[in-house]
Design brief:
By secondary structure, this protein is an alpha/beta fold. It has a single domain, classed as Rossmann fold, CATH 3.40.50. It is 53% helix and 13% strand. The chain contains 13 helices and 9 strands. A 7-stranded parallel beta sheet has the order 3-2-1-4-5-6-9, with helices on both faces. Helix 5 links the parallel strand 4 and strand 5. Helix 1 packs across helix 11 and helix 5 runs parallel beside helix 6. The chain starts with a strand and ends in a 7-residue tail after the last helix.
Length: 278
């Protein structure tokens, strides 16, 4: 049976990917960050083996060699974090954390398993985002990490071609995960971390983020839909370089990436309920 490492598998998209692949005959090694999460995912299927893996921990990444089977057919780099706020107010430590989780950690895991994938002619999947190609206000740090992740994947795809190792990017839009249940609290924490001066300067911007969160809760797609696309990327005879999840995101991406910059900016500010004048 094929085997796969899925990072960020304790909840949300990663949990759905692990469950779907296990149900369809894959031996899944589920990267989780705690013993509690390990116990939870282990109970979901006999085909799921938890692996303690914080992708920002060099010790955890180094230990993968002892946790994985000699034959590994795929890795799904799904672990991620979201840092919000106006770029002027994002603390350097938060920006570093954003990039460490969403970019550096993904590369570290991929490097750790590449020798196994080279032997099996396996596949690499990166779970990116629509925000990997379209940047939105107040999501600059997150979008920067996804843009960077897509650049990494594009380079890897070309570099690994001689070994017949496909590298695939999956681009969901907003997805129904735990993140949206706690989004209001996260936004309050973000605002509280800003200086009083920054809160005053961006007082007209922050309510738009709240509106965007409310809208997302209503329009987000189930995580299972993303998992289905990931499975397609892993099993297609000739996988595409990119899979956009859903018809509406495909339309938005097509329109947004072909508009003149000034027009696109106006559209994205409007969609994000952001002011154009103070």
């Amino acid at each position: 049976m094929p085997s796969v490492l899925v990072t960020g598998a304790s909840r949300g998209i990663g949990e759905s990917i692990a469950a779907r692949l296990a149900a369809n005959g894959w031996d899944v090694f589920a990267g989780v960050r705690s013993d509690q999460d390990a116990h939870k995912v282990k109970g979901e299927s006999s085909r799921i083996t938890p692996v303690i893996l914080d992708v920002t921990s060099s010790e955890h990444v180094a230990a993968l060699g002892d946790s994985l089977p000699e034959r590994l057919d795929a890795v799904v780099n799904n672990a991620g974090a979201v840092v919000t706020g106006p770029m002027e107010a994002v603390a350097s430590a938060e920006l570093r954390r954003q990039l460490e989780v969403n970019v550096v950690g993904q590369v570290a895991v991929t490097q750790a398993v590449l020798s196994r994938l080279r032997r099996s002619h396996g596949r690499i999947v990166f779970v990116s985002s629509l925000n990997g190609r379209v940047s939105f206000p107040l999501l600059g740090a997150y979008c920067a990490s996804k843009f960077a992740l897509e650049a990494v994947a594009d380079a890897l795809r070309m570099e690994l071609k001689p070994w017949d190792i496909p590298v695939v990017i999956v681009e969901p839009a907003q997805t129904k995960t735990d993140m949206w249940h706690t989004a209001d609290a996260s936004m309050e924490q973000m605002a509280a971390a800003m200086t009083a001066e920054m809160r005053q300067l961006y007082a007209g911007h922050l309510p738009g983020l709240g509106k965007a969160i409310d809208r997302t809760r209503k329009t987000a797609v189930p995580a299972e839909k993303v998992a289905k696309v990931v499975e397609e990327a892993l099993t297609a005879r000739r996988p595409r370089a990119r899979y956009v999840v859903g018809a509406a995101p495909k339309l938005l991406l097509s329109v947004a990436t072909n508009l003149p910059t000034s027009v696109r900016d106006r559209v994205l500010r409007a969609v994000s309920a952001q002011p154009s004048r103070l």
